[in-house]
Amino acid sequence: MTRPLPDELASRLRTSLSAAGLEPPAGLDLAVVVSQDLRFGDYQSNLAMALAKATRANPRETAGRIVAAFDPTGLCAPPAIAGPGFINFRILPEAWAAKVAGILRDDHCGVPPAAPSHRIVVDFSAPNVAKPMHVGHIRSTIIGDTLARVARFLGHDVITDNHIGDWGTQFGMIIHGWKTILDPSALAADPIHELLRVYKEVNALAKADPAVIETCRRELVALQQGDAANLAIWRQCVEVSKTGLQRIYDRLGIRFDHWLGESFYNDRLAPLVERLRAAGIATESDGALCVFFPDHPRLADKPCLVRKADGGFLYATTDLATIDFRLGEWNADEVWYVVGAPQQLHFQQLFEVVRRTGRNPRLVHIAHGSILGQDRKLMKTRSGDNVQLVDVLDEAVARARAVVEAKNPDLPEDEKQSISTAVGLGAVKFAELSQHRMTDYIFSWEKMLALHGDTAPYLQYSCVRVRSIFRKLEGPAPAFATLDPAGLVLQAPEEIALARQLARFAEVVPAALDDHRPNLLAAFVLELAAAFHAFFAACPVLKAGEPARTTRLALCAATDKVLTTGLGLLGIGVPDRM
Ligand code: ARG
Questions:
Q1: SS3 378
Q2: Nearest CA to ligand 1 atom 5
Q3: pLDDT tens across 333-366, in order?
Q4: Which of 13, 224, 309, 515 registers the highest number of CB atoms within 10 A of its CB?
């Protein structure tokens, strides 16, 4: 019995349907779900009701026939019928024991690999360069990284690609500023900072003087036409920005397989547009080239512009070339875009154009909401600037450091540092991942950096707590990887509840990808920690007699493994001590 419990129950339900001579209508969902009220059982199915409705039979009677033919051996008590025809399953203690042993044996904690495995490109973070990442970039960066980790864990072939905006109109201003107000020594000392200063200053000048705008526009056109001096400046800006970005990703433990930014596609835009025109997909309109969607319910009046009348290409053109590359060169089955909700129309148009070309990959816009300031407008500091991501990370680590100093002043310096880093950055990540990705939320230092309540530090501390049990263990720990489930005897309700939560990991991890919702996984690890603390308060471990002692040690070891793995999928590390 290595399948997740709902799958195992569904498969036995299928067998009992045919044994009872009941023919399920095609497409009937046998989905077995976790019970809302655990007094009635651990899992529940409304199969009998759905079947009775389709065949105009009596639901309770149908449930009776299914239950009578159901073989519960080794898995659950004989199922019970409740209310209008729900079928309730109570899992047997020995089946929970088998789950716990299975988790300890398997390096994927009992989570089955996805079948079939897909090649998935995950496009996330993708900031526009030459401006530092601000706090708003945290969402795509952290959600995207987690989704990529989960997909990889499930056995998909994942390619992460940072599609940075390295060819935008911002370069007109930056090149003009570089030529007129750059301070070379400041650039050498802190390049990102100096670039930002230049950018902001030119921005302010441009607001006051239209002539500056015109100069910047000319610098941009010169760059686009291949002017050697401007290209050299551009190249330096991109290099400097990438170095700064890499430093942030390193701190966050985020790795990209590729950094194919917008500029990578420059040479591919003209031929792409020509192909679309030749295929009759793009048509001319007032000198521009557009793709029209006359029959589309939402896009009928929203054509996708692929070449402007002046010959310039657009964000959408670059993204079309990017899709061609990912499908053609990388043979991707799926492309996921973790990008804010305001770009929804852009992606709808993009995906529709791809469909027009006769291809049908799975393209998903994984949208997310915004981070707002206290006034519910887009996040700005009092000076009007965006809060920079680096500052959030620094502050998080500093706050964690203060707590470590207070609690554990005698730890060696390097350990203090590594604990503060894991705790501070973990807090920032968890604050993001525990929200539904579509909610807009108000930025709050308190919330993002909280160390108490439903936070990463609480979860990390829970792991440390479990591990401390093993540190106190006298004599060798049981050989968990080869444990015989027959030696595990679960009795106390807290033991059962903990085992139930551990077994749910196999259900939650795939579910987090169904709708690309890392918050399901975040909620799961919180519930697991709560189940552990309830267990640990009620059930002594080291002082218990056998078989309780081995059983409880196994539950502790499985908790450590699942919590650590679950936090790892959220990109959150666990220190040994706290
Ligand atoms: N650079 C864009 C921005 O900051 C996001 C790019 C997202 N990815 C893409 N393939 N369009 O808004």
A1: strand
A2: 126
A3: 999 999 999 999 999 999 999 999 999 999 999 9
A4: 13
